[in-house]
C-alpha cells in the first residue's frame, strides 16, 4: 500500500513544569526542542513501521527548515516539499506537573502555501492507495482534495479551532480522528455530551469511520453503525505530545495490514507517551507487536 500524507512539519518546543503552574510567573521545569507537526509525526511513525509513505509539506528557508528537511531525508521518507520564504512553523506546548497540556500556541502560517496550485503541479493522487490530511491545511485545499481525490481520505482534527474546517466535507471523508473536545465542535444541535451520542451524530453527517480518543479512558471507533471501545494501556507518561498522532498512525498501520485498528492505535499511543518528543525513536514493528501482545494479555 502506498500512503500519501499532506500536512505540517514544525519545530516543537515542549515545556514541562516541575511543580504546579503559577500563572503570570516564571516556572521551573524542563524545555525540549524537536521536529514535530501532525503530518510529520504520522509519516515518521509509518516510516519506522516500514510502510511506503510519501509526505507533502512546507518547510521554511530558515535554519530550522534545513534541520527538518535533513531529518526527514534520513528517515527515508519520499518528500514533496514546498520551500517557503516564511519561517518554519513552530508549536509551543506547556505541560503542567501532571504531564497534561496546559497551553499550546501554534504559528503555522507557512502551511497555507500547500495550496491548490502546489498540489496540481506536484501531486498525482492516482499514484497512492490512501491519503492522510491534517487540519492545518486551508479550507480551500481541503475542499479541492475532497472534490478531486478518489482514494480513501483519513483526516486528523488537530484542535478545536481547526477541526471545523472538515465540517462541510465529512461526507467525502473515509475517516476522521478527534479527541472529545474536537469531536464536540463537529456535532449538530446535540444536547448530550455522551461519547456514544457524539459518535452517532458525526457518523450521521456522512463520514464512514469516526475515531475518538479520550485520554486515559481509551479510544472509540464507530463504523457500520456499531461502536467499539478499548480502554487505554496504563503507561508511564513523559508528555502527551504526539500521542494522538501516534494513535492515528497505529490505525493506519492496522488498515494497511488488515489488523485491529483500536488495538494498534492504543499500543502506538502508549509507546509514544513514553518519549519526551512527539515520536518515539525506538519504534519498530517488533516493539509495536510486543506492546499489542501486552495489551491482549491485560484485556
Compact overview of the structure:
The protein has 299 residues and is an alpha/beta fold.
Give a structural overview.
The structure is a single chain. With 299 residues, this protein is of the alpha/beta class. The protein has one domain: Ribokinase (UDP-N-acetylmuramoyl-L-alanine:D-glutamate ligase, 3-Layer(aba) Sandwich). The chain is 33% helix and 26% strand. The protein has ten helices and 13 strands. It has helices at residues 38-48, 63-74, 116-122, 139-148, 160-163, 180-184, 195-203, 243-257, 261-273, 285-298, and strands at residues 2-6, 10-17, 29-36, 52-60, 78-84, 90-95, 101-107, 130-134, 153-156, 175-179, 209-213, 219-223, 226-230. The strands form two sheets. It has a nine-stranded mixed beta sheet, sandwiched between helices. A four-stranded mixed beta sheet has the order 3-2-6-7. Strand 6 and strand 7 form a beta hairpin. It is globular. The mean pLDDT is 93.
Radius of gyration: 18 Å
Number of strands: 13
The average pLDDT value, as a whole number, equals: 93
Global structural class? alpha/beta
Number of helices, counting only DSSP H or I runs of 4 residues or more:
10
What CATH architecture do you see? 3-Layer(aba) Sandwich
Here the CATH topology equals UDP-N-acetylmuramoyl-L-alanine:D-glutamate ligase
Q: Strand order, biggest sheet? A: 5-4-1-8-9-10-11-12-13
Number of domains: 1
End-to-end CA span:
30 Å
List unreliable stretches of 5+ residues.
Answer: none
Major beta sheet summary: 9 strands, mixed
Determine and state the CATH class. Alpha Beta
